[in-house]
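Justification of computing resources. Each target in the renewal requires a structure prediction run like the one illustrated here; the chain below, 115 residues long, is used simply to show the kind of job we budget for.
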Amino acid sequence: MKYRELADRAEGESSAEIVKRVELARDIQLERFKGTKVHCNAHMASRQIRKFCEPDAGGHRLLEVVTEKLGFSARAYTRILKVARTIADLECTESIREQHIAEAIQYRSLDRKSI
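Resulting structure tokens:
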């Protein structure tokens, strides 16, 4: 997050609103994987990642640049796609956009720094 967002004194989303968004995202995932053994994005297999995690053109470009610069493994790449799919689900958007990829990459970077 940017400093201005953190320092902003305006009211953010309430806990109840966040719970509703998360529940809706979970419902989207349950519907997506209906009839399979998968129940959430984190458990997707390669075939499902290819089917449900196709980013837009900007997302592809960003992934290409970041993967080359940071040397992401195939495993890191697929994790980013899964997290981006979840971010898109939280926004109730069908497509994975560049901003979803960027946010997922940021989470990956934060995770790597804490180790």
